[in-house]
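Annex B. Sample input.
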Amino acid sequence: MSSDDTPSSASGSPFRPGAADRDRAPQFVLPLVLHLEKTDPPARTDALRAAARAVLAILSDERSLGDGAWAAAMRDWQDARIRKVVRRARGAEWRKAAALDGITVTGEDGAEVRVFPPVPLDGWPKELAKLQVSGTELEDPGTPVAPGPEGPVLWLNPDVDMSAGKTMAQVGHGAQLAWWELSDTERKAWREAGFPLSVATPGAARWRELAGSGLPVVRDAGFTEIAPGSCTVIADHPALRR
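Annex B, continued. Sample output.
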């Protein structure tokens, strides 16, 4: 399960390099690993929420800021194309991945996603490089609860079909775009609340309404699964409804 893409919005990264500069810069990827045991797979929506929260967790972590241990890698990653790759691990593979520097986020229903500091495209740690990137799908055991009207929501395009891993990366992009658009005060409040968020798929009419609202939109670079420029996620945070 993977996504090798680039999100974009009207304002873009806080570093805001031009498109050509992003392509010329050394390319990095943010690795995310889903804990996926054969006998007890996570629910799809819970895995999506955990992936989005994992991205927010590493963006806001003290090690990613200032002179923190991850800060240089995070800056290099955000100055280039914002790539994320989602892989899966079980058993001993998960335990080895969990021993590496990173952050594990657990979903409301038990899904586990571990996010790691960015690595060069061809510089994956051996414990992560051998993990699978395709061949797994996730399902929800029932109809997911509809998001409340006030909380942050990552809306999925109802007309774009994506694998679970691709979708996890896309909602991570959406969460990141929302994070970039918020003020420091708004970011602090979201973090202190534990990064509550929902992931949902609207009907076609609602999607068109959201697309015209000015909220941050993820436009896929088209490296995997879907056509370049496809709009995959709209990030809807209460603070952005201005």
